[in-house]
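Good morning,

Both structures are done.
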Amino acid sequence: MKRISQYFLQGLLFLIPLFVTVYVLYWIFIQIDGVLNLPVPGLGFLVTIIFITLIGFVASNFLTKNIFLLVDRIFVRLPLVKMIYTSIKDLVHAFVGDKKSFNRPVQVVIDRKSNLRVLGFATRESLDSIGIKDSMAVYLPQSYNFAGNLIIVESEQVIPLEADPGEVMKLIVSGGVSAG
């Protein structure tokens, strides 16, 4: 009986991540199809991928680049829109593009006595520009959540990690259970 329950548990451990992933992808497909009101499942996702790629092509074209820059300048100047737009833009650019910010994994010593440490990403080496001396900014992503906290710590508390940033992010987001 013990062996049967072990097989059952192993089956769950295999099937739950598989089915949850498939369900989330299915849900995304259905949501996009619903927005675009297309009768063929998955066609909306394909249309979305093509549309985004087309926008990327147009945005990188010399003739239309100025139009996108104009839209960007307008959004940056509107009071409430600026806060939302620049925050989202900076967050997206932190993960992809030329200005990746989460590429310097670190551990921060919180309490030397108990050797309590947290993992995060150094985002600013110096905060002198805002009047905080000898300190740096470290972003701490949260596990199983699309959120995090920015902490300010003395530079001497930060230890750079010689690790792949993607692996460190995966470790943090998974709550430490994902191993590379």
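Second structure follows.
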Amino acid sequence: MALFQAGQTIEIREINPEDPPEMLLEHTDNAKIPLLIASTTKSLGDSLDIMTWALNQKDPEYWLSANKDEMIALINQHDKIFTSALKCINHPEHFDETERQWAQDLILQTLEEIEKHLDGQRYLLGAHISLADIALFPFILQFKTINKYSFDGLPYSRVHQWLAEISFHRAFDSVMAEFQLWTPGDPPVILAPWGRS
């Protein structure tokens, strides 16, 4: 979403990090994704770094205008929680019932905190959408996708509204898609200012 918002034209290659193509390993010591190869001399291997890099090129809706320290602290706080808990929920076969319940309870507790955070304001850091909203939104959307019916019944009206608003943002609609695994010789999949092709 940040790359689209910044008007960047990039080629997207969906890869399996457990079986990375050789070209990926030319730019990173491990197969960690995402990876943005910005030039022959510059690559970024962290989601937040990629988003910040893109929006520093162009930021038409001022997603970076919120207080930087507050924004990064909020992202980092919830990123760690969602990453660990969703790993458990996404791969229940690797965890016992106690661990799965812990993950579920942790996410519900976090959603309650976000609900309180949204009290009296439209977005996480005030009246305007910011990088914090874009960075944390996919985690909650993923949890909703896994728990569609139970999520819709949760008593977090502000979270539901916030999630719906971002889901209707042009940047989300333009980039949201599932991609086939890339293999050498495949026609390129391009993300450009007009969308994907």
